[in-house]
């Protein structure tokens, strides 16, 4: 088992990059040790690339990232479908771990397991920077915070940083879904840098 799956405190960072670059994330433990990398799968068309450069609703486009260990061993695929309604988390061989389904765009998400049963929720604050993950009984199982990096960084770059805290013990697959919340919410709410 990768250290990524057993960590209770994570830092998720999306490095600064130009508008033509692919989605990338680094996942570290609380001390800064690199646990996983995520890189966009597939190639973007010229139209998709231009949509990410010019204002508009580019966050509505589908995109997926492959989460791997630092030495390249595949861990998970976080697959945001077209629109804002569905993001799936899959094992590398294709098995569905679970999904994030929009209940209220930008404010509340339902978490489902691979069979479609509800296993939790994510409540989001007005600024879309604070994410509280709860189980079906309302017990808090994780907290994800997006760190403010300043106005210019927020509007002009893709640099985002998240702190993830898991309140163990959390049963699977809710724990894996909680671990991927920062990446899923970033892809859904913050990736395009549109002012919405």
Instruction: Indicate the overall shape.
Output: globular
Beta content: 35-45%
Largest sheet: 12 strands, antiparallel, barrel
Oligomer: single chain
**CATH first level:** Mainly Beta
Give the C-alpha Rg.
15 Å
| SS content category | alpha+beta
- Any idea how many domains? 1
CATH superfamily: LURP1-related
**In whole angstroms, how far apart are the ends?**
39 Å
Task: Briefly characterize the structure.
By secondary structure, the protein is of the alpha+beta class. It has five helices and twelve strands.
Q: Can you tell me about this structure?
A:
The protein is globular and about 35 Å long. A 12-stranded antiparallel β-barrel has the order 1-2-3-4-5-6-7-8-9-10-11-12. The protein has 196 residues and is α+β, with helices and mostly antiparallel strands. It has a single domain (3-190), classed as Beta Barrel (Porin). It has 5 helices and 12 strands. The longest helix is centred in the last third of the chain and has 10 residues, at 181-190. Residues 44-59 have low confidence and may be disordered.
């Amino acid at each position: 088992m990768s250290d990524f799956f057993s960590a209770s405190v994570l830092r998720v960072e999306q490095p600064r990059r130009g508008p033509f670059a692919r989605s990338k994330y680094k996942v570290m433990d609380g001390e800064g040790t690199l646990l996983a990398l995520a890189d966009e799968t597939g190639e973007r068309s010229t139209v998709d690339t231009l949509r990410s450069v010019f204002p508009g609703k580019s966050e509505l486009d589908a995109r997926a990232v492959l989460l791997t260990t630092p030495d390249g061993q595949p861990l998970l695929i976080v697959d945001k479908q077209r629109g804002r309604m569905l993001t799936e988390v899959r094992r590398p061989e294709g098995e569905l771990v679970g999904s994030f389904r929009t209940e209220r765009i930008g404010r509340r998400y339902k978490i489902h397991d691979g069979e479609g049963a509800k296993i939790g929720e994510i409540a989001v604050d007005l600024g879309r920077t604070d994410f509280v993950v709860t189980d079906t009984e309302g017990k808090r199982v994780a907290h994800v915070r997006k760190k403010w990096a300043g106005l210019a960084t927020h509007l002009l770059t893709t640099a985002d940083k998240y702190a993830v805290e898991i309140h163990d013990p959390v049963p699977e697959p809710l724990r894996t879904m909680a671990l991927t919340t920062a990446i899923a919410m970033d892809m859904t709410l913050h990736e395009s840098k549109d002012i919405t």
